[in-house]
Structures are given as C-alpha cells and as structure tokens.
Amino acid sequence: MSKLRRREALWFYLFASPWIIGFVVFLLGPMIASVYISLTDWDSFTPPKFVGLENYTRLLTEDPVFWKALWNTFFYAAISVPLGLGIGLWLANLLNKQVRLRKVFRTLIYLPTLVPLVATAMIFKMVLAPSGPLNDVLGVFSIPGPSWLLESIWVKPALILLSVWGAGGATVLLLAAMKGIPRELYEAAEVDGAGPFRQFWSITFPQLTPIIFFNLIMGLIGAFQVFSQVYILTKGGPDNASQMMVPLLFNEAFSFYHMGYASALSWLLFAVILVFTLLAFRTARRWVFYETEVK
Amino acid sequence: MATVISAAAPPQQEPQPGPERTPSRDRVMGVFRATPFTYATLIIVSAVLCVPLVFVVSIALSSDQTVNANTFTILPREFHWDNFTRVFSTDLPMQRFLLNSVIISTGAVIGQMLSSGLVGYAFARLRAPGKNALFIIVLATMMIPAQITMIPQFILFKELGWVNTFLPLIVPNFFSNAFNVFLVRQFVSRLPSEIDEAAMVDGLGFFGIYRRIMLPMLSPVLIAIGIFTLTATWGDFMGPLIYLNDETKMPLALGVQYITSTSQALQAPPWNLVMVGSILLTLPMILVYYLGQRYLYEMDISGGSAGVK
Fold it and tell me: Please, which residues 68-127 of chain B have a Cβ atom closer than 8 Å to chain A?
C-alpha cells in the first residue's frame, strides 16, 4: 500500500472511531454479556450463578405469563399495524383527490403523530376513562361503553385504538408517494374504462406496495417493542390481559432484579422479531411490486 | 433500505388540474374527483382525530374543583389560563423537568450531529481495508432491538456510577448510531466527488476537507438527524425511567407520568396541571416539525418511523 493510501486508511479509522468504539462498548460487549447473563441466575448485587439454559426452559415451559405476554404482543402487532396502515392508506387516497383545504386536512390528520407517547398515554387515560368522552360519544348512540382499560377483553382494543390515533404518519408518507405515481397510468386506465375503485387497486396500490411493505416491517418491529403506553396505562393489567414482551422484560429486570431471566427474555424477543421479519420478506415477493422487476 | 429511501416522497407539488390545457384535461379524472362523500369523510375523520387534543386543552384549562369533581367536558367551558403559569409555582418541579429535558435533548442532539457526520463521511469517501465489512456490520446492527443491550448497559453505567445522572442518556449519542451513519453516507455518496478531489489538490487534508468543504454541505442531513434525535430524546420514557429516579433529575416526559403515579390513592392527580405538562411536552414537537419539515421532506426519510407508536 502506498504511503498516501495508508494515510487515508488511518484517517478512515480515526473518523469512524466514534462508531467503532460505540459499537464495541455499547453493542458488541453488552450483547456478549447479555448471552452470558441469560445463562445465569443474577440479581445484579451478588455474584451471578451459572444455570445453563434454565432461564430459557423456564420461560418456555413453566411461565404462563410469558406465553400470555407473547400472545398479547402478537395480537397487538397483528391488528394495530395493518389497521393503522389501512386507515393511513384510505385517508391518503382521499387526500390525493382534488380536495380544497388539502393542507388543512393533512395537518389535522398528522397532528396526533407529533404528540409524544407519554402525552398520548395521558390523553388516552382521560379519553378512555369510564365516564370519558369516548363513552359519552358511544352513549349518544345508546351503546353502553366498557371501562376500557379496566376490563380484560377491552384493554387490548383500547391500546390498539391509541396506536391507530397515529395513523396519520403513514398517511403523509403514502400521500407523498401517491403524488409520484405517473398520471399517464391513470389516463390510460380511464381510456380503458376502469372505474376509480379498479384504478385504486390496479394502479395506486401496486405502486405503493414497496413503501407499504417498508412501513409494515418497521411497524411490526416497533409494535413488538411496545412499552410506554402499556407501562403508563395498564401496567400489564388487568390480570396480565395487556402484559406485553417489553413491559414484562422491564419488570423482571428492574422491579424484581431477575437479570438472567430478563436477558433470556430479550433474546426470545429478538428471535420473535427476526422470525416475523423474515416471514414478511418471504411473503413480499408475492405482493410487493418493484418497478425494476418489469423490463 | 436503499429502495425505500429513493422510493419515498418526491418534492411537494400539488398537481393542479390544468383547465387551460387540452379539452381532455378539462375535467378532473374519476379517481381524483372529490365528491361530497370525500369531504364528509375527511371532515368526520379530522374531527374525531382532533377530539382528544381539544379534550386535553379543555382539561388543562379547567379549575381544581372541576378536576376533583371529575366533570370534564370535551369543549372547554372554563378558561383558567393561569394553570399555565401556576404549573411552575406549585410544589411540582415542572420547571426542573423542563430544564432537564432541554439539557438531555441538547446533549443528545449535539452528540449525534458531531459524530454521525464524521463517521458517515468516512464511510462514503475514505478508502481503507476492512471498510466494506465494517459497513455491513453497521447495517446489521440496525436489526438488533435495544432490549438486548438494555440490561448489560445498565450494569455498565451502574458500575461507572452514572445512575441518576444524565450521562447514560447523553454520552452514547456521541458515538453515533447506525441509522444516522447510513443517512449521512447516502447523502455524501450523492455529492460529486470532484469537490473533495479539487480540495485535496489544493492541499487540504482529510480533516480540512471534512471541516471546510463537507460540513457546510451536510447541513440538511445533519439538521434532519438533529430533528430525529431531538424528537426521540424529548419523548423518551424508558431511558429516563431506567436511569433517573430522583425527582429533580427527571425530564418532562418522565415527570408528567411521575406526577400521576405518585398521587395518593384518595386524591386524584392534578389532571389540569398534568395536561398542561402534556401540552408543554407536545408544543416543542409541533414547532420543530413546523420549522424542520422541509429538511425532512428533503431527506425523504420522515417516514422511517411513521406508524411506529
């Protein structure tokens, strides 16, 4: 290597050193430590006791709360993410028409996504209160509203409702993407006699699938890691009906100091997320449309 | 990832129907025609989405009596604007919360902007053995959920004596993160390389090129990174919850929740002041979005976290 090349390489490693150091200290090191901790029984004060795979087997075979939390997280992710995207897409399609005051509508629809999660949780604590505005509205239609956060069948729908309030994030993104779809496609379809509905499913939707897919993946990963709203609103209750993976992990680690057990839980969470991401990618070939695939 | 970045938002243009053009363009095409039904739906949906926000304002403006009687209304009936000043003079350390939020967020933003630019530039432009392998690691780390490292990091910071300080929430930001590095790298890759080649001929070293040539051009991506970091840190709940348990150290996001969780069972939390706190937590985000949205659109990445709530 020439002297100049060596100097350049030196500068590269110097410039990249913040990331390299951060990677080793805050990611690689902790990951290795996490593998080890997950194989021990450790309260973080006394020396750890090596127990092999016991934490994993206990989680998978003896802990009913873990399975409940896993199921709840699945349920939450499987409904809130597609529902949020579906509503986002529906609203984007409406805004993509020649509507007056489009910017006003867009702003109003986007506004909820700017509210930090803690504030959102506070807001929904009041909105979902047994005598709160949601039940007032339901009362107008003489539907007796449940005590959302206090009933085991309604607590998950309540959390899903909170997440769907932020569907406007997807709307803004999809709307921007819709504007990029060539108008000629619609003109051609119009000439061929396709109605608005057909045009949506044959032009708009396929053109948007890459961005929908990306949002689906990111949404699922985020939903599997749901924490703040559960911690603030329900603490996993009632009767673990809204217990989810990360709040469970947090409790095990920082309320009960079961560091080994919680670490094992974190690896199982990682495995679940990985499996789902891979599954999503497998299905992608069937419905995600990439322009480059067409010659 | 790359496909998404390029597939995302084109610049914001409102396609106007051109009535002055050819007769066939005179009418709006079927799919783009807004019917009364379109307007009705949009109005109803916007109203429904805004009800919680109006309700918050209504609670924030209500008197202590209304809070105790729990008789809130969706539309405000009382206007106790003094709640917004009173919140700073009660025994709730709201001022302190706000100041803590500002300190933590500022530190985090500075850290990310300083480090991501440098690292991203290196990955885009400098040649070195092992660089490509390293970049694959950068991409791979994006997949690892934070929960994996949460416990060992806590142990690490505890050993360092950093628990109950802002340091665990600020310092890691000075080591950049994979997503931001990726953003800067993509951004720099799109700049013509003649610029830095010319600078090198003129005798500038690598740091000089970065400092004098690159840094000014990087401002859009660095501002976008600043906005992302600010939004994430300002609203972060879990980090402060893990590391800060002293009331005077809490940022606003944790403080607001802390107020509601520590109220006595018999006494309802001061909901009006809690909602003032929630509004204080939200307003900066609206302001930042309003001021920064053109950078976000420019970066085409505002949607990276859309719908992840």
Answer: 70, 72, 74, 115, 118-119, 121-123, 126-127
Kindly determine whether residue A222 and residue B176, on different chains, have CB atoms separated by under 8 Å: no
Residue type, B188: V
* Average predicted confidence (pLDDT) for chain B: 84
Q: Which domains does chain A have, with CATH numbers?
A: 55-293 (1.10.3720.10)
Q: What is the 3-state secondary structure (H, E, C) of A53-88?
A: CHHHHHHHHHCHHHHHHHHHHHHHHHHHHHHHHHHH
Which residue carries 């924030």 as its tokens? Answer: B60
A15:B238 CB<8 A: no
Sign of CA dihedral A96, A97, A98, A100: negative
Q: Which domains does chain B have, with CATH numbers?
A: 23-81 (no CATH), 94-305 (1.10.3720.10)
pLDDT digits (tens, 9 = 90+) for A7-58: 999 999 999 999 999 999 999 999 999 999 999 999 988 899 999 999 999 9
Token pair listed for A199? 């045009």
| pLDDT (tens digit per residue) in B49-69 | 999 999 999 999 988 888 877
A254 vs B contacts (CB less than 8 Å): 154, 242
Q: Scanning every residue of chain A, which has its alpha carbon at the shortest distance from the alpha carbon of B176?
A: A19
| Whole-number Å distance between alpha carbons of A19 and A84 | 35
In A, minimum Cα distance to B25 occurs at A187
Mutate to test the interface with B, among A7, A13, A115, A274 (most CBs of B within 10 A): A115
Residue A90, both tokens: 């529906």
- The neighbouring-strand residues paired with A40 are A50
Dihedral sign computed on CA atoms, order A254, A256, A260, A263? negative
